[in-house]
Amino acid sequence: MDTNALLYQDLEKVLxxxxxxxxxxxxxxQKLTEKYRGEDPIFVCILKGASVFFTDLVxxxxxxxxxxxxxxxxxxxxxxxxxxxxxxxxxxxxxxxRHVVLVEDIVDSGMTLHYLKKVFANREAKSVxxxxxxxxxxxxxxxxxxxxxxxxxxxxxxxxxxxxYDEKYRNLPDIGVxxxxxxxxxx
Length: 187
Ligand code: IMP
Ligand code: MG
Hints:
- This protein has helices at residues 18-36, 51-58, 111-122, and strands at 11-16, 42-47, 66-74, 85-89, 99-107, 127-135, 148-152, 158-159, 175-178.
- The protein is of the alpha/beta class and 187 residues long.
- The chain has a single domain (6-182), classed as Rossmann fold.
- α1 (18-36) packs across α2.
- The protein is globular.
- The relative contact order is 0.21.
- The chain binds inosinic acid and magnesium ion (MG).
């Protein structure tokens, strides 16, 4: 899909291009290859937002790994989370004594991952690391160590490459700032 496509007309601007994403994902894959070679980690995709990033990232990692999927929902309006997290779909296998790598689309307030880190610590994972495509440090509300992040972005609501607004725009190949007129009359 090119940037003249219909979906792009709801964007204020493109923030991170598909080429920039591909380069960053490849570099991150090389770092994770070195870090986890010989460790048999579990890479956990936090659905649905991380799905596109996750499938690209694992194909850049040259080491045996297990993939698993988890879906969480944070209660709140569609553009802000409240920190109350519900596990909608859990992993298939236990993580006891395994290195767990949580793969997220974006760290915003940090509350979702703060909560999930505690969940995996209680399940006695050997380690829990956080990998995110995007980080919005200006919005952090809890102290959270992000181990790997591809891009720091300003405080704007973004969509594309897995990220949604109201379940839409996940299929945009680039990441863009959603035009506020799309959501300003919503709760
Ligand atoms: P946190 O708990 O506030 O860090 O929220 C993280 C979750 O909020 C992400 O996994 C996204 O699903 C969602 N989110 C936060 N900012 C954005 C955004 O700019 N666009 C789309 N989703 C976002
Ligand atoms: Mg998400």
